[in-house]
Amino acid sequence: MTNQKAEYLIKLEKVLADPHQTIDLKNKKNRLELVSHQDSERNFWVEMTSNQKIILKTSIHHLESNTFVGLLRIDFKGTHQNPTGIKDTLPEDLIPYVGKWFEPEDHHMHVFVEGYKPLAWAIPLADTDFPIKEINDASDLSDLITNFARLINLKSLINIQQAIL
Questions:
Q1: What string of DSSP letters covers 32-101?
Q2: Are 13 and 155 a contacting pair, CB within 8 Å?
Q3: Is 163 helix (H, G, I), strand (E, B) or coil?
Q4: Are 84 and 99 in contact (CB under 8 A)?
Q5: 20, 38, 108, 132: most buried, per Cβ within 10 A?
Q6: 66-78 residue pLDDT tens
Q7: CA–CA separation, 69 and 112 (whole Å)
Q8: What does the alpha-carbon distance between residue 65 and residue 77 come to, in Å, rounded to a whole number?
Q9: What pLDDT shows up at residue 165?
Q10: Which pLDDT tens digit goes with each residue over 21-44?
Q11: Residue 58 and residue 13: Cα distance in Å, rounded?
Q12: Which InterPro entries match (predicted)?
């Protein structure tokens, strides 16, 4: 897959395959199936996972040749190291992050880059336009999900069941 195709897939209008599906934040994993009426050949899913180490990992994947390819993911409290090698397909804006190690407090956004393992590259959330930079309480999770949906061009309204703290 090329960088251009990944960008096209992220920008493609999507809707929930099941418009009545609910995200239940007390679950460790939530998965939403997405479809696009603009390009009916495409299938996607969004997954939100959390565990004791990572507050929330939110990702979108695209079905490509019977395998799912990660297009975009946001990690809060996760650790990660970017690749150290530069290929011709690496976008200029990622060059400053070659080999960067992300500590748990370095919230970051993983992006697809052609020629690398899917989602091998990340950029600090502080260096992106994504409006949610921190998660401090449960209401921030709803804002994160809503803004992630906007980022991936999800047109459906999402029903979010808040976790009881």
A1: EEEE-SS-TT-EEEEEEE--SS-SEEEEEEEEETTEEEEEEEEEES--EE--S---TTS-GGGGGGTTPE
A2: yes
A3: coil
A4: yes
A5: 108
A6: 678 889 999 888 8
A7: 9
A8: 32
A9: 46
A10: 888 877 788 888 899 999 888 889
A11: 18
A12: DUF6978
DSSP designation for 148: H
Residue 161 bridge partners (DSSP)? 24
- Specify the pLDDT at position 66: 65
In this structure, the number of other CB atoms found within 10 A of the CB of residue 43 comes to: 16
Nearest-angstrom CA–CA distance, 12 and 17: 15
Structure tokens at 161: 């069941």
Burial class from Cβ neighbours inside 10 Å (0-12, 13-18, 19+) for residue 156 reads middle
φ, ψ of residue 86 to 5 degrees: the values are -105, 125
